Amino acid sequence: MSVHQKKNGTWFVQYRVPGEKIPRREYFGVGSDGEQKARTRDAEIKLIKTQGKQPLVVGKERMHLDALAQIYITERKTRGASQRWLQEVTRLLNNYVLPALTYKPVDAITYPDVIGFMEAQWGKRTLATRQRYLGYLKALFRFGIEHGLTANNPLAKWRKTRERRRDLHLTVEDLGRLLACAMPHLAWAIEVEWELGTRPGPSELFALRWSDIDFVACHVHVRGTKTLGSNRIIPITPEFRDRLAVMRQKAQSDYVIEYQGRRIGRLQKALHRAAEKAGIKYKVRMYDIRHLFASSMLAGGADLAAVSRILGHSTITTTQQNYYHLLQGEMGRAIRTRPRLGIIADKD
Prior knowledge:
CATH architecture of the largest domain: Orthogonal Bundle
Number of domains: 3
CATH superfamily of the largest domain: Intergrase catalytic core
Helix content: 40-55%
Number of strands: 8
Distance between the termini: 94 Å
Structural class: mainly alpha
CATH class of the largest domain: Mainly Alpha
Strand order of the largest sheet: 1-2-3
CATH topology of the largest domain: hpI Integrase, Chain A
Oligomer: single chain
């Protein structure tokens, strides 16, 4: 039994009840009034326990977000969630969400509460980042309802906004110029990305280990986690297999992409400097290499389903939506496959 104050100034009482693994928390607001209420409640609980009794069981309408989050993270861990996902969601909750939204029970949190918090904390982030974070919160609220812990999901009607498709400016020629101007660690990352088309970030490209490469079978195991199809095997050419073998001898760590023996987390600054040096005027992202990788294969006549599998998309529809618009000649090519009506008539 004790009185505590959260980073956002909220006062709360924490105490244990026999048979319950997670300590109970009761919140009482901020300021001197919140502190006084918390200390009064703490004294009441201590008195109840000295009488050999237990505090009344707090109903689900009193569950707060920190308790719900702890149960949720524990459950996801037991179900085999990736360490990267657990770390990201835990950091997000502890550093941002919980300090701001635990001042009232989950069932009292409203949609304006969440959106106001999002704007204050993440308003300057990209749309994709904001939507990913809100998706995490929506899943957390949904978990509480599904397991009978809460009755409210303030994001139940929230839906992701379709992001504006970013035009692809990068060409194979410009990619070659970029490669020539890149620092060695960036040049190697570009080379690997062009050969595998992975998601160019911590989840896939930077997570590749040398143990994921089968030099005999000539393939790479990408242990992605974003979609059901993310965990996949990508075939490689014998030439790239030999290139990997050479780089393996120079490696200082377990990771394929490294810098001075350390795993890389970001490459955007190095990429920006290389683009400036190469005289490329438009903004280039590592993700553009993945897009160029896919669109080049499709433009060359590659099977859409095969490209979809290589990219790790959950469905072929995702590949169609993201890349088919780049193939300007496909509709004309489809039209030209029909026989001419006059030829058919002549045969009759």
